[in-house]
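Cross-check.
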Amino acid sequence: LGSILLWSLFSRLPYRMAALSQRQSRRGSVLIAFFGAVIGSHFLLMGHTFIQPTTTTTSHSRRELLLPAVLLVGQSLQADAKTLPPCPAGANNCWSASAANAATGQNSMPLWFFPKGAERSAVVADVRSVLEAYPQTGQNDVDASGWSFAVDELASSGYARLEYKSKVGMFASIMNGGKPFIDDFEIQIDSDKVAVRSSSRVGDSDFGVNAKRINYIASKLREKGWDAKGPKA
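Predicted model, tokenized:
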């Protein structure tokens, strides 16, 4: 009888162990899943707490970094609109009257001043009328091939750039492929003064053409009551 009982007990032992192992395995899987969910939820909350502010901070920092650059660009554009550059040192084909050179140097000339109390619209009208009345056939043996506005912002920023073309003479035929030489005349109307600059694009000497051009325009503005002095031709 004892042998039968021992046989019965030990013969079922493997099944009991297997069942126990399955229950423990299921229990372990449930515990693992539970703790996994808890840990996952914890990291999700941490991610929301820490990652979100970091993203906001990064975006904010990017705006803070870009803002000075935007302001700097705006200031540069504004500065360029109000200041014409001086002529290069030693240049023989350029004249400039601007706040940048303060009428010093061999290529510098005084700034121009319109009548006191003049409205800006009247100042712009004076400048435009004188520029547009410049002869297309030139004057004083300069600018014989005409002129045109390259930039016309007189009504908005007070700036304009015009291109004046020389006659096609011997030098233009030989040195410029039979095309006229081009000079640039710039003018900038400020709140209390006017800056001008006239320069040749090529060549070392302009044979006095820039001075003749400026003097002609200055003389027409003086007829309107301006204080506009030109360089010595």
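The two ends are 141 Å apart (CA to CA). The longest helix spans residues 2-82. Passed to J.P. for a second look.
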